[in-house]
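pinging the channel bc i need a second pair of eyes. not urgent but kinda urgent?? the chain im working w is below, pasted from the shared doc
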Amino acid sequence: MKKALWFLLSGLVFGNLPVLADCPSEDVTGDCFVDLEDFAVLSSQWLNNLADFEPLVSQWLTGNRLPEDMVIIPAGTFRMGNSTNTVEGSNEELPVHTVTLNSFAMGKYDITNEQYCAFLNFALEKGWIVVSNGQVHTTAPGPSFPYCDTASVSVPTSQIAYSGGQFSVRTKVGRDMSKDPMVQVSWYGAAAYCNWRSQQEGKEPCYNLSTWACDFTKKGYRLPTEAEWEYAARGKLSGKRFPWGDTITHSLANYSSSSSYSYDTSLTRGYHPTWNDGIIPYTSPVGSFSPNDYGLYDMAGNISGWCNDWYSLTYYSSSPQSNPPGPTTGSARVLRGGSWYTQAYACRVSVRIGHTPDARTYRSGFRLVLDL
């Protein structure tokens, strides 16, 4: 398919390409020219619409290869908020409103213990962080912001161990937790990781680690806006409760099942039987369940994901319709997606909660986005 796409792109950039021998498969119209008519036919077959193809063309022509763990989310317009049943949701999910977004890339998976551990060891070597009473803090002048917890008597739920000046990923009941999502990480720790990965790949860091403001003009990694998160989580579906439809089961996500909700149709109840090993957290390795139609895993359940936005109960009443960045100030940051701990209600794509940015829990983590 890539060969055909490049052949077509060459024809579009340099002019129609006549075929002098037998017409190849790229010439789908049979006129022995590779031209816009062929492009239109193939694009309609391969992709949902031309808006899906635009960011791909941009990536190829500029030579910017997308990392393998990222997928392109095409530009589009969607209805944000709880449009399934206003009775089952809360006021903070309303009013339902129209939002238009530019294309962007999002991580297929939540950031894992293994990935975050690599950042911690790098940051420790550079003198950016210090470990005190089991907590990882910044060493920058001014207020000391907590990044994450390490495993200790007071925080046994962290899967990051610290010993002898080195961070490592723990095992739990004999299971290597490297591929499980990072938990016990603050919003600050998530933003700092974004900057580190940007620097590792030669991209511009988005966050000012003194003010913690995000510069959206930079092209490095950052946390998703709340609108980007919900748009991506919906996976091309409109008005559904979950990334795949209106009901949820343990075959689809890692969450706590209950008969209290009619849309929870799982045959097993309580915590997920595969991952409930008796030792919290009951997270599952990223990618353990099927992705949504955008190729994103665990957008419901497993862990709740930090978003870039400040949280506001009434923000939907005044949110901009185009690429909303969230409120300019606040005391809490947005978390989305439910977790292994929450029931079906909290795993709905429209649910929004807020935590102070220094909060670190055994059910929250993050994934990345990248502007194109």
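so The chain has six helices and 19 strands. and The first strand starts at residue 17 and ends at 18. — does that match what u expected or am i reading it wrong
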